[in-house]
Amino acid sequence: MNKYKNLLINVGIFGLSAVATKLMAFILMPLYTLYLSTEEYGIMDMATIMVTTLFPVLTLLISEGMLRFTLDDKSKAAFYITETMLVMLASCVLLAIILPVFDLPIFGGLGRYKIWFLLSYAALCFPSVMGTVARAMDQTKLIAYASMLSALIMGVLAYVLIAGMHLGLMGYFYSYIVGNGSAILVYLFAGKQYQFIDFTVWRNNASLRKQLWRYSLPLAPNSLCNQIQTTVSRFIITGVLGISASGLYAAASKIPNLLNVLQQIVQQAWQLSAFQEFKSSGLKHFYDVIWRVYHALMSIGSALVIALSPFIAKVLMQRQFYSVWPLISILVLAFYLGAINNFLGTIYQAYMCTKPLLIATIVGTVSCLAFTAMFVHSWGILAAALGVLVGSLTIFVIRVIDIRRLMRVDMRPFPTAITMGLLAAQSVVTLSQCGHYLFLSLICLLSIAGAQCYELKPLINLMFGRRKYTA
């Protein structure tokens, strides 16, 4: 039972981190939509998207390889961590070189804030990599401390600079850079992560570099393709409908990110446990158990957000932003499929078989972008939301079929299919706002919750010692 205990501990630690960072973003959302114009909000969102898009491109996600190999052999940790930090530093230099590109019109005015964008990249990505180091070196508590400090500083500064001093978009950049950058100090001084940097070990273990990069390289374009679904869709919206439309779509996308808080908590803990327990006995049973819990959390969470979306939108989406709230249901359905895709992706990573991740994601990305480009003129920003759904569904189908050659995880096909059908129905009635749609949405939510509670009944019996669990 130690592996389940460790998983729960990790869930708690990553939960504190996610609550601090993600929920602060939602606390600040009414501030942004109240004090920023749709154009400023669109630029702010474009900056955020470009940071998350460029991170896998410029670092090639070497930090993911560092995590996997360090957990496998901590005696070589100094090499993997030094290599990762050098790549992270090089990525900042490369970004500084290509900054003039952001003067192009497709970036919606981001070029006017080039230096602040570079600082935003460094302030977010360095703590992210250092957080991965903390996971690899059993410093997971530091992640919660760093996240809480950075969220608190960013939140206070945002209200002072934007609401108090009326600095607008510059107030956002100041609070974002200082808030996220403060986490670096936690990792450096509280975690003493500088002690993991050793250039002598790095030079003497160059033979390890090949296997590290062979594992990491497919992950970079895989992550990039996931980002492209969002980024290029925004470019299409901006080019066809304008930056204001992109800002409206960005606002609608923020509420489904509530679920990312839950998903990232479980996903990070699950990934760490999957790597740590890979060589232990009873691996398939462990994965089967985690699937039931993971799927229950993702499906109930998705149904709950769809049911509450009109009420959440009234609080978080001010002025003209509120008009696009029905898109939330489609984006939540896409999130649900994406969450399942991430679960399956962790299995590929545990087996160090990362190339199939890339193949499925490329196909899904092409499907997403083709759909968006085809229908954006006639359907507007709805086409982008449906495009993300199409891409996520494509990846899901490919991975469910392909994963069987590595491990036959019992994904409970019949209950899962029923849950997917109910979520799809709930999304459609909410999007269309048909008669009594709130009541119908509630019925779907209760049905999904009931089905998942029934699925979890064997685990509940196990927890209370009533009988042995069989997957």
Break the fold down into its secondary structure elements and pairings:
Blueprint lengths: L1 H34 L2 H22 L2 H11 L4 H22 L15 H23 L3 H25 L4 H22 L8 H6 L4 H8 L2 H23 L1 H12 L2 H20 L6 H34 L10 H24 L4 H25 L1 H22 L10 H20 L4 H27 L8
Helix pairs in contact: 1-6, 1-12, 2-4, 2-5, 2-10, 2-11, 3-4, 3-5, 3-9, 4-5, 5-6, 5-7, 6-7, 10-11, 10-15, 10-16, 12-13, 12-14, 13-14, 13-17, 13-18, 14-16, 14-17, 15-16, 17-18
Please explain how this structure is put together:
- This protein is mostly helical.
- It folds into two domains: 1-216, no CATH class; 218-471, no CATH class.
- The chain is built from 18 helices and no strands.
- The chain has helices at 2-35, 38-59, 62-72, 77-98, 114-136, 140-164, 169-190, 199-204, 209-216, 219-241, 243-254, 257-276, 283-316, 327-350, 355-379, 381-402, 413-432, 437-463.
Tags for this model:
471 residues; mainly alpha; 2 domains; 18 helices; 0% strand; globular; membrane
Termini Cα gap: 16 Å
Oligomeric state: single chain
Average pLDDT number: 82
Low-pLDDT segments, ≥5 res: none
Per the principal axes of the C-alpha atoms, what is the gross shape? globular
Structural class by SSE content: mainly alpha
Number of separate domains: 2
Subcellular location: Cell membrane
Keywords: Cell membrane, Membrane, Transmembrane, Transmembrane helix
GO cellular component, one term: plasma membrane
Main location: membrane
